[in-house]
Queue: 2 jobs
Job 1
Amino acid sequence: MAAWPSLADIADKVQAGELKAADLVEQSLKSIEENAEFMAIIATTDERARQRARSIDERVAKGEKIGRLAGVPYIAKDNFLTFGAETTAASNILRGFNAPYQATAIEKLEAEGAICVAKANLDAFAHGSSTENSDFFTTLNPHDKSRVPGGSSGGSSAAVVLGMAPMATGTDTGGSIRQPASFSGCVGYKPTYGLVSRSGVVAMASSTDVIGCLTTNVDDAALTIDIMAGRDDLDATTLERENSYIPEAVNLKGRKIGVIKEYMSEGLDDGVREVVQAAIDKLQAAGAEIHEVSLPSIGLALAIYYIICPAEVSSNLSRYDGQRYGYSAKDAKDLEASYKNSRGQGFGKEAKRRIMIGTHVLSSGYYDAYYKKAQIVRTKLINEFEAAFKEVDYLVGPVTPTVAFKIGQNSDDPMQMYLNDIMTAAANITGNPAISLPAGSSDNLPVGLQIMAPHRQDAGLLALSKKVEEVLA
Amino acid sequence: MAKLTRDDVLKLAQLARLELSDDEVEEYSRELSEILQYVEQLGSVNVSGLEPTNQVTGLTNVMRDDEVRDYGYEPLDLLKNVPYGSVEDNQIKVKRMIG
């Protein structure tokens, strides 16, 4: 597993002419090739990456200033629209799709000199917690090839941990950045809802979709967020950014940290509990004030999520109709048959499952009982989070109830698979920022520590996370 | 407890424009019922006095001037992914709609 310098170090050295962007791209492509057995990558964008690297090296030679990610190779989750390779969201229905424009997040990274080298695998349309729902193949856990890397950003997490690139983009709708970060052993950052533009990212559940990143350390996550964050005319839900997300030095002394009681109770694997408890003890030893906090409705987050998410999925996936782009069934007798056959043949099992659940909970006669009720309970959960953040500065707990599970273990039981998001979905329902930090291991498999912060306090959360990273090291 | 019959699944599939095989109808009838059973725990939650949340940004009425902006795309750039090249005069040609 190749180790990369920090993103800031790489950029400084490329700008100074001490490292060549072209060599960094080759190093990244070589690592992708050497680790091909892990199946983290759907396609490389090698030609475009080499071109961009050459151009950056030439501009450096001419004395031009490149940017804060000069020559930094990174990997885009394949639900980000990019040039240089197809954008498929790991779905058959989007196979062959060449993006006519790039995601805002990708444009912002490129404007600072970053170079996309490959597209990472995911559960198709980001529907899943293991990459087993990819319509193409399953990514293997970097620490144990018989296990999943987590998902849906499992290609991204495996790629970063295997050293294919120092950073990968991710999306987190119900835990899809934090859960694979925890299972694979890297940092996964999910910002406040709306901090990073969703324009050009394949939509899943629009009211909880968040764009973030996976890295090996907090500084790299913070720099990436600092570059991607902010208002975008192409996404009306984007927020005004804070001045800077680069971590300031903070002290844990006197910080009030709330341990989520419900997450530490039954249903939590003993090995995970030990690692998370040991991490909390270290924070206390470093001066943090530890409080037990109860959020009585947090156990309902997953039920809220599995109404709101499929409802929004069913709406967002209605655009795949076989007419404008993507898979189109041949030989349909009329337009309706073309829709039904294109969608029936083109979508994978999980997409169809979610489309039908969503259609059901939104349909007349069921809307009030399911969708509206879920949105009201959502308010209840938000109120509990707001009350908790009046008592404490941050909330902590596990990311997942278990370590990475075996490939195939949950694939015949969708409900069991959904339960993987039980400790991550809440932050999506409420929109709060949250991070997964490597905290240790159980049975030689990584365990993450989750930290959540109040809305729009991403800078504070990243600064605290950097301190926690030091304390846990 | 919600139990989706084969007919319920077929109706949903029609609403969502999904052609399903017989095996799929059988499988989804079982799986969707299980998922609905799980989410139905919300039914008994006391929510008196609470309003629904549609979005969590706190933003209201994000406005911009109603003006044409040039993003530099030609219509054909945006139509290049249309299947089977069925583009005529910058429009997509589809199968007949009425029998």
Note: The longest helix of chain A spans residues 368-391.
Job 2
Amino acid sequence: MLRTKDQVLSLLEDALKRSKGDETELVYLEDRDSTTRFAENAIHQNMESTDARVIVRLVKDGRVAVSSTNDLTPTGIDAAMNDALQIGSFLEPDQSFPGLVSSPAAQSVPAFFRATDESSPLDRAGSVGKIAAAAKSQKVQIAGLFQTETQGMAVVNSRGTRQWYTETRAEFSVSASDDPTQGQGWAIGAARDLSKLDAVSVGSIAIDKAVRSRNPEALPAADYTVILEPAAVGQLLLFLGFLAFSGKSYAQGRGVLSGKIGQKVTGDNITIVEDPFLPGYPGMPFDYEGVPKQKVTLIENGIARGVVHDTRTAKMANAVSTGHALPADNARGPYPKNLVMSPGYATLTEMLASTPKGILITHFWYLNYLNPMKAQLTGSTRDGTFLIEDGKVTKPIANLRATPPVLEVLDRVDLIGRERAFYPQYSAMMYVPALKISLFPFVADTES
Amino acid sequence: MPDIEDIEKAGELVTHAKSKGLTYADFRAVRLTTEDVSLSDGKPDKIDRKVSLGFGVRALVDGAWGFASMPGCDPKLAKAALDKAILIARASASLVAAPATLSPLTPPRGTYATTVAKDPFAISLKDKVDFLRSLDAALRQTQGITGTETTLSFRREEKWFYSSEGAAVTQNIVHSGGGMVATAMRSRREVGERSFPTSGGQHQSGGYELIEAMKLDAACPRVASEAVALLDAPSVPAGTMTVILAGDLVSLQIHESIGHPLELDRVFGSERNFSGTSFATPEKRGSLKYGSEIVNVTSDPSAPGGLGSYGYDDEGVPARPVPLIKNGVLVDYLSSRETAARLGTTSSGAMRAETWQNLPLVRMPSILLSPGTGTLAQLIADTPQGILIATPSSWSIDDRRENFQLGGEIGWEIKDGKLGQIYKDPVYSGSTIEFWNSCDRIAGPEEFTIWGTPNCGKGQPGQNMRTGQGASPARFQNVKVGQTG
């Protein structure tokens, strides 16, 4: 890390003393991102990027303003605080602002690992080289990403909140392909501790899928039974995070769960929890307002139970903050970043065996809102889509465009996998099983 | 903040360095200043300013790339970053396919600045907030409006670029954007929403004069009444029909199904793991009938006004127009110096990074669809039956950029050359080549606008790029409409 806990807290506390605000919050974000990208069985992009910035939220006479800088000299931070003061002077008092909060120190979580922090470009190149060799032996090409990241974060405010946290994350994702036969495969692995991430195994899953998906056949668009692998389930869950579980849209009456807490919204077999303390991949233990995070049950046995809040949306909804604020320079509102779906009892083999006809889906591409009010999405399958006939995977099929209304399809889950996998996307982590779902809608094969 | 002398010193230090195996290096510093002002229901939702300064160094060693970036601009750190980039490049060299080569470039030495009539950062924040409040009030004059979002966004990007070949370029690029959304909500499932000038607002290069030219205040009554009308509008009936896309949807269509598939890095597979590849493979250059005869598309970062307009790309390549599709035929790609060399041509000047922290990638500059003739009204009058769709609300396209599904905020039935019934949530889908070949009329220059896309994602780690697509409304035949599953 560039700075230690003591250095950061000292920097911020000194700045707090100089603030001319009635209340001041300083959020420190530091990041070192080391990424090796590869394509055509070779490394084509390789980088290390570092940055640290401070986000100022300053309250003066009830006026709230935000500014940020990556000039972390006293002069730079003072300039940002003065900027916020000046911005605030143009505003009217913010009646909906609940005030900064005094929070106890959040519990410490094991999220920093030296093996990840000290990963070198040569280490990453070595792993990629092994997988590239395996790919060549199968006459496929690999492309992907091997990334390690170290982050430091602190929140201090004039109400006495002092939080500090460091984390590491390692991610390896790989696509394997054989363009002449349209064979495609993909797999992903993620861990806080790089030594727990078996990149070669991840690579071999992708290569195997590419080999098995050569020469796909077209399947007419219709409603099919599908088995979604964990990554595909994670993608649907990520969108529910935006559409259903954010306290902002909920409080505005526009969220998918607005007015539905306590009501049945999915099948009885679905339970989804926001769990920042998940063993194996714990998340940040406090939010960007310094509020310690809570585990929040979102859907329990099909019944909507809650959403996540920051202090502002909590005030709007007459609730308490669950510790899910995003940085103050973000207008999206709170968001769950550690979504966990409860497992079931089925193995993948059992899911397949119980399916007379269906589609096995690796993951989706370019999911986007189609009808946000219904939590309906549109996106195409990708990197290994297979036909299931009489309980077995029989052949690869061409990609299809799906238009799932997420809560509706979660009402038609026939089987849930007993194993779960971590699926990272954007800054969220999902821990999810495979699902077997009936009547999953498709509107086109991707050639039409 | 370090002064410009520090930046120049750092740039020279990096690009004059001698190191074993180092065949090329470049240094790019960026000072980015942004201001975002958003009101929700007339109250501040997001008002903040950001300042960020840093630099990135690329090194080509033994045919392989390394990149390192750091905040600030201390010349000592620049040397450390170069050493780091060389170390990373040597690791890359352990697994290269073919040594990277760069297409030739006469080292540019020059400056570029966006033409700005009114510096947006010199307009007081109070005036901006007051203006947005006036829009909120004007939208609420219409009965039934229950919510408003009004936004202004400004960005100044100061860039310094130096290369070991002798390039020395400085740029000062200014973007301004703004827009508004009116919402009429009766219940959670009964919502009418209209955006203006388009969803996410309109963004271009230029100063505050762009905001004034949008005439947001004058549009308030129409925008609000359309939002209310959408409350009771039916969904568009499913079918295959003639579709006229408003300019902002043509812009999105260009972005998704012409701009992205013609990025030469993804054509070569560099983005396979995330953004995907392209159906427009190199052997199709010069022969692929991409669109109908009237489809002419040019990459032109020198076009004034676009979010993808600049003087030089992030390899120092001067902006110039490059035809991509001529009379419907694919003729060229968006390229970098490395990808162009692989194709045996020269860079189109499309290499850009989100900011100093990021490696440049092949990104869309301003991509312009040549206008045809006539106004939108004449285009509608010339259409016996069909639908007019406006304002992007949904978009998705497969990883080879063939099958797409896009949607608009609003549609109007066209019957006997006149607009009729309003439809909510019109969605249409198709296949890229079939769709562009069905384009049978494009409106004229009087309807032409370079629409801004301020949030185009690509790369790993993800980079958010600002691109522009110039378009007039256009008509397409036999389009699948309304199929949502």
Note: Chain B touches chain A through 80 residues (CB under 8 Å).
